[in-house]
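Exercise: predict the structure of this protein bound to 2BA.
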Amino acid sequence: MKLVFAVVHDEDGHKVMEELNDKGFTVTKICSTGGFLKSGNTTLLVGVDKDKVDQIIEIIKKKSKSRKQVVNTPIAPIGMGNVFMGNPVEVVAGGATIFVIDVERFEKV
Ligand code: 2BA
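Solution:
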């Protein structure tokens, strides 16, 4: 058995989850935050047999869009106060970041 972790954009999370449910997969949604952008994203957990992993990845791929996002990184203090000049940096986030890990044991009690 495998556990698929997929980090998707908040706006795509619902669509991905709905499609996975429609295709018969059980999904857990976790509200998460990206360490770089410090903005909300969605992490989906799907436990499945090994032979279904590719199907899940295809669904996530189909329902997740990549987006350009701008992050303001402070580069220099201005004057003597605590005001920082922003340095806007554009990054392309997503479609999705997917991890597939082995499940040693799976129980429902
Ligand atoms: P964030 O950490 O907020 O990153 C958002 C986007 O910012 C990333 O998109 C990437 O394009 C850019 N980025 C991240 N770290 C960067 C850095 N040190 N320098 C320059 N640009 C950087 P994605 O790669 O598509 O990642 C989207 C989200 O997926 C991430 O949000 C994070 O929550 C998760 N993620 C991505 N790779 C991961 C990893 N190796 N481990 C854990 N989570 C990961």
